[in-house]
Design brief:
single chain; alpha/beta; Rossmann fold; 2 domains; 7-stranded parallel beta sheet; 14 strands
Amino acid sequence: MTTETTFASLGLAEPIMRAIADAGYTTPTPIQAQAIPQVLAGGDLLAAAQTGTGKTAGFTLPILHHLSTRAAAAPRPGRPRCLILVPTRELAAQVEESVKTYGKYLSLTSMVMFGGVNINPQLKALKSRVDILVATPGRLLDHMGQKTIDLSGVEILVLDEADRMLDMGFIRDIKKVLAVLPRQRQNLLFSATFSDEIRTLANGLLHNPKSVEVARRNTTVEVIEQSMHRVPQAHKRDLLAHLIRHHDWQQVLVFTRTKHGANKLAEKLIKDGITAAAIHGNKSQSARTKALASFKDGSVRVLVATDIAARGIDIDQLPQVVNFELPNVAEDYVHRIGRTGRAGSTGSALSLVDDEEMSYLRDIEKLIKRSIVRVEIEPGFVPPAKADLMSDERPPRPPQGRGGPRQGQGAGRGQPGGRNASGRAPQGKPATAGAKPAASRGAAPNSPAQPRQPRPQAALFSSKPGTRGH
């Protein structure tokens, strides 16, 4: 594809082109320019793109075209024609909003399905026609177990952020879903990287796939200004409050390593007169939705998030990201700072690093192949007295690398009191009721974005699906 590629040249149906025009776009991003023709051709696709590249529209647009230009084989209520699997609730809501945005002039229907909310509205929706289903694995398995959904009519399967789903332990859930899907179908696997684990998954799932990769693995977004302050852990909270006031930051996304740390930091900022909210896996879906909406509309200046909870956050022109603590896995740094500097806009990423985190900093710099600028703390910052630091001890980190639990994930699958990232409660414990998330902004073709982190997998599949019909 050349840089002159336009949406008009891709052959999308007129109602879809109208919706794209309404959103104000004429030129596809590189991943869209390469992926859309491949999906329209009907074959399987393995696509990799870094965060902020617009890959959500890269598959939603051609899927809408396919489903709107050919009739369903045997339409029935609760029998979707397209299944899009994603790792988190926020991402599910974002993808379905993209489907609604670009399918608004079509007669196709869609729904989003995830845990952490009352299942009854989903049961009601499944009694009507559903063409496109966006789901997290846990809640989808719940419906499969209750026989409230029929997956025998799936023509197109999308695994979005497949590497993150592997890392979060969803491979068994995915295999259970694949077992009930028609053998003849089109498969689209989207990932932020082409890791060895993703290639293993692709070899078992995809049939003679085309391959698209628009960015080198682990490259950072060049438009992001990266810097760090060397500061003791006990001084970080006060320094962050000072920086927010000193620089008059009005919208800051702050990453912490743990859920407890996110709560404590948000409470500290509020105490200092700075509006803040925390978002993590222990929060109810309604609380997460409210916090994100308040951050987007400016009524909350600081959103404190763990890595998992931040998935699916897509905010136009987010100016500032702060790593309150460096991630245990270097690649997660790239995902974090990718929340800013989207769609060609500039952004700034600041890390607060204490002595114990210097080894993590070196790993990050080795990964991104550049040094992060060391910046001296402004003279106006006065560290708190020792008496104020007694409660600032932090829990020990898990072993460096991929061996321990992921940052911010806490208890998860198989762990007492945990809830997995799809919102599914542990067996024997009901899911917490909540509201459907508000529509996520930034679903336009030039702005969707998302990331990940694989972990080693054994042989994921023993055989390939049968011949595809597309």
